[in-house]
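Please predict the structure of the following assembly.
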Amino acid sequence: MLEAPPPPVVRTGSAGRLADTLAGILSEQVHLTIHDNRSTMISFRRREGRLYYRVHHMFLEAPETVVQALAEFAGPVRGRAAGERRRTAGTAIDAFVRHNRTRISPARTTPLRAQGVHHDLEAIYRRLNAEHFDGAVDARIGWGWWRGGGRRRTIKTGVYVHDSRTIRIHPTLDRAEVPEFYVAAVIFHEMLHQVIPVQSRNGRRMIHGPAFRERERTFPDHLRAKAWEGSHLAILLSPRHRDRVE
Ligand SMILES: [Zn+2]
């Protein structure tokens, strides 16, 4: 008997969105793990009717064509046409990885840069860890990278990578106009990803499930930070003056 497809779940995390998109293209249940490895950028395997992907976090911001290639790469291979599609998909993925190679972490021994011009991520992280987590969070934190190209309408302000226990904050937050309580709210959110396990519902992963959202709301500046982001998104989306090519 065929299993009924799980009901749609509203997702806010881009890992969830990517998993949903892949599941939609492939008409299969997809389990997605995001990693920060330096060598194998993507891998997949099928087990008990589910497709398990492991992909580097750079793919969270991959364009549609690359997501399509990710799906085709793991699609069933039967016949020459399918083999050809998989090779084409592999080529598209390789090109995307080459284009984004600056996002691959330097070797683990290289310290992350946490001290910005305006905000010291490490100091904020330590304060939050003491005040809200009894010092239980064990993560590294540093600024991420600017990605060139194109106007953007959304921005991924932070990312937590489980494999390396690393928090990266988007460097657009390192500005005088960005208040510290906002940076702290972003860091708090990423720290929560280590503390709140991913919830499963109907076999789907919810990285921002109810428990996560509930705990997130306990952050004293949660609403203030959301409101600030809502009215200052244009600042976050604009290049910093010193990064502009004049
Ligand atoms: Zn999140």
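Confidence is low (pLDDT under 50) at residues 1-12. Residues 13, 189, 193, 207-208 surround zinc ion (CB under 6 Å).
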